[in-house]
Amino acid sequence: MNTSLSWIKAYVPDLNCTDQEYVDAMTLSGTKVETFERLDKNLKDIYVGQIMSIEAHPDATKLIVCQVNLGDKQLQIVTGASNVKVGDKVPVVIDGGKVAGGHDGGPLPEDGIVIKNGKLRGVDSFGMMCSIEELGSSREMYPEAPEEGIYIFPEDTEVGADAIEVLGLRDSVYEYEITSNRVDCYSVLGVAREAAATFGLPFNAPVVTVKENNEKVEDYISVEVKDTDLCSRYCARVCKNIKIGPSPKWMQRRLASSGIRPINNLVDITNYVMEEYGQPMHAFDLSTIEGNKIIVKRAKDGETFQTLDGQERTLDSEMLMICDANKEIGIAGIMGGENSKITDDVKTVLFEAATFNGANIRKSAKRLGLRTDASGIFEKGLDPVNAEAAINRACQLIEELGCGEVVSGMVDVKLPIKPLRRIPFSAARINQLLGTDISEAEMLEIFGRLELTLENGEVVVPSFRQDLEGIADLAEEVARFHGYDKIPMTLPSGEATTGKLPFKLRIEQKARDIAEFCGFSQGYSYSFESPKVFDKLMLPADAPERTAIVISNPLGEDFSIMRTIPLNGMLTSLATNYNRRNKDVRLYELGNIYLPKALPLTELPDERMQMTFGFYGDGDFFTMKGVIEEFFESVGMNKKPEYDPNSGRVYLHPGRQADIVYDGVKVGYMGEVHPDVADNYDIPTRVYIAVLDMPNVLPFATFDRKYEGVAKYPAVTRDISMVVPKTILVGQIEKMIAQRGGKILESYELFDVYEGSQIKEGFKSVAYSITFRAKDRTLEDNDVTAAMKKILNGLESMGIELRQ
Amino acid sequence: MKAKLEQIKEQALKQIKEADVLEKLNEVRVGILGKKGELTNVLKSMKDVAPEDRPKVGQMVNEVRAEIESILENAIKKMEREKREAAMKAEVIDVTLPANKNRVGHRHPNTIAMEEVERIFVGMGYEVVEGPEVETDYYNFEALNIPADHPAKDEQDTFYINGDILLRTQTSGVQVHEMEKGKLPIRMIAPGRVFRSDEVDATHSPSFHQIEGLVIDKKITFADLKGTLAEFSKELFGEDTKVKFRPHHFNFTEPSAEMDVSCFKCGGKGCRFCKGSGWIEILGCGMVHPNVLRMSNIDPEEYSGFAFGIGLERIALLKYEIDDMRLLYENDIRFLKQF
Hints:
The complex is a heterodimer of chains A (804) and B (339). Chain A is α+β, with helices and mostly antiparallel strands. Helices cover 25% and strands 28% of the residues of chain A. In chain A, the strands form 10 sheets. A 7-stranded mixed β-sheet of chain A has the order 28-31-32-36-35-34-33, with helices on both faces. In chain A, strands 3, 4, 5, 6, 7 and 10 form a 6-stranded antiparallel β-sheet that branches. In chain A, strands 12, 14, 15, 22, 23 and 24 form a 6-stranded mixed β-sheet that branches. In chain A, a hairpin with an 8-residue loop joins β38 and β39 (763-772). In chain A, α5 (249-257) crosses α6 (265-277), α10 (427-434) packs across α12 (471-482) and α13 (503-517) runs antiparallel to α16. In chain B, the strands form 2 sheets. In chain B, strands 1-4-5-9-8-7-6 form a 7-stranded mixed β-sheet, with helices on both faces. Classes of the chains: A alpha+beta (804), B alpha+beta (339). Chains A and B meet through α7, α10, α12, α13 and β28 of A and α5, β1, β2, β4 and β5 of B.
């Protein structure tokens, strides 16, 4: 939404402030001004001059030498423009003055262009005559300007006057951000009403009286609304003896400042009223309407219709159409038809101002791919009272501007207009909500500025303020104009509460700490990805991971499914780093996967937080194990995790993968990424990953700690060395030691694994250091021997040979 | 006897003086003071001394012994110190050689900002809660006073799974889950991932993070909202930070506001960073709309509350002067290392 200051001042004549004051005050009262621009920012010392004589330039055939009268002085100016003649009144910038741009209409320089006296091909020139482009505007906005050459003022323009003023450029244009609830502020009148309220000044709305002829509109047209659910009001008026011509300059200037190109009086009036009242209107050529009848009804599926831009549109049965007795003549609220559009030959015009269902217009415009200025306003849902006001304003302007003659009366088909809303008023309640002590008198004064009245203890809300529903809304109105900045700052009183970070988040925080201590940096990746990910990870067609939630309107296939496995994000990030030649990269991510209980989705999926680690470069499988175990220990998981090599994950190296099992529960998996998968991600090196399924880890995690005492009695350590079949995992040996060691077993530590020529084929040499200790006494030799014997028997039963 | 003792003493002092290594001093200790040492031998020969002279001789022996011991001890200490000094002199290192660092990883700027916000609000008595990222229409829209036909629900903004299930567009739905628990008062913040149908560019991402805040109690006022968020801003951006509240519109709050903070780069004078205004828009907030309270079975006549929503990435980008949002999701280690 844009308005010029001068247009606002038309309704708030006492408004007198700088641009910055206006911007700040309006923004603080809720009509946010995004930007503003002074139209005369780079215009200086430009006056209306009259060309008194023109002579040829002695040395240049394309230049002429003009004597120009500026009232108080006469200047010689050389120009290359060919459209001027003696007697023309033109804008002249004098020595030291400034223009906004070049004559080619290209991008405007930031600080304008300073004009100095000079010589053109040896002839003195004391200034410059200006084109509309040099004044920072265009023919779009000043249609009377010549296609090429100097702008020429009307003959009655005063010589020596300020040309910037005459052109209406002593003005500013504000661009507002209007919030979606304030439909009324998508109009100049709405913004002006806010401005008047903000500055506490009188608001002068236009006085609308229509001078009508003695014919009756009913003799020209009848209206039938078949689908009242989509059209709650349809107003129609007729104007005849239309004389198409340019609209007055003031109207052109106002439209131009709002970014609307002036065209002719009829079009300009409808646009003007749309801007002024925020009510789009449509004008039909009555001679094209068959049967003198307007019918408002839904289209039929698959019908086509040619809109006035010449495009063929395909309709459906949810789109509302304006029809005559035999045919469709417009898509309601979006665009009129080619078959009924106004031409310069129009004699009689049918004006339409209607109230359509906003949501329906929005959806229809979207399906048609045709969002127009009108539909953009209708979709906000308009006030039916405004339709009547706007159509009368248009008819008034038609008559006043000599554009035509207004037929008496209005055809008005409508659902009953809702009575004005009434909100019980309580100053105490408003103060209680705001935490203020504002007097009732001040509140009522504020309401007065907003045209809210108090009747029998109730605030009566005008129809254009559909957004005001209850006491909280009234509180906001009071707060806005009392000033948000004047409301005090306090802290909530009442019952004290304990700040808490829940256990899950505390564990996640710990996980981040440990990951970072271990050299991993945190990454973030998207929750949605491409279904092609499953192929990149080589998951078979029936893999459960392929059962993923599909987004019905994704940004594209690459973002179309909710991830069921966190590896793609990790591998993609590692690949990015590898590709950029970053060495030894370690990343982790804490993020959800989304597992549907069934597809199509009928209930919310299982969102499972995954702690994913990944690295390449320095380190190996056991580095990753170290990270996992550091984390477990830091969250009180002191049992020894087990690693099951039979995890069967196709995306991992078949000989270098394991499920991570804690206390019998599978809590995650880890391994070296399958070289084929690494190839798919273009990472030509070994990559290691680990994933912890946090919902399965959490039940084991704890921040409780118990001091177990520091050993008082000495430990006894025995070393054993064995020859072990290669098929036996070290984990199995450890399990046996743990099982058989008894109460006095304190710890065991692997200190050597060797496979090679000194060991027979199919075997490996493994050596452990086993430590025993009792809490309550010094161990006797036979305590230890007995325990060792049990362990050794157990190991022998597994087919392990002991080396003495 | 006396002469003998004098001679032993002379000899000992001479040996101590001449000793150039610790071992030689030890030899003195053994040779003179040891079990078979000369002085010990003198004591052993006491039986030859007349009984009446024995105490006197004993005293003399002990005096000489004490004297030698003391001198010897000092000599040993001195020599040990010299030895250590010499050793340390030989161990001088170049302290400017590079550090041997443990390679510690780095937290993502989003998380740093999030933990910072959490820390501040937990300190103010707020509980951190979470809600689902895949959410129903009811919690994301309807219960927040966003009616069925509202433009915000358009497919151009919201990712839908089906008619009823969607990817949450805001963390505000967590408010509703929390209110439905029926436990009052409420002081909570809810950080989390949200989704909007925006193409990826320098300032947009289809997935980003918000932190929702909600306070419900008796007599909560707009002044409390202002005071709380002013405290928060000072804690996050520095003690001198000023705040400005501008009226705005959100369906689930009334009155509503947007909050600006004084630019933390220029202190409010106006710079490129704040586009010359001196202010930076930080969050949206307001008093919880009575309709929202009612839908969650809280009586707006008895209770009131405020809510606010902070864009986490916005805070992270501003605080760390990151100029492109895409960097947050690339996970380039050279980027992450800077936090």
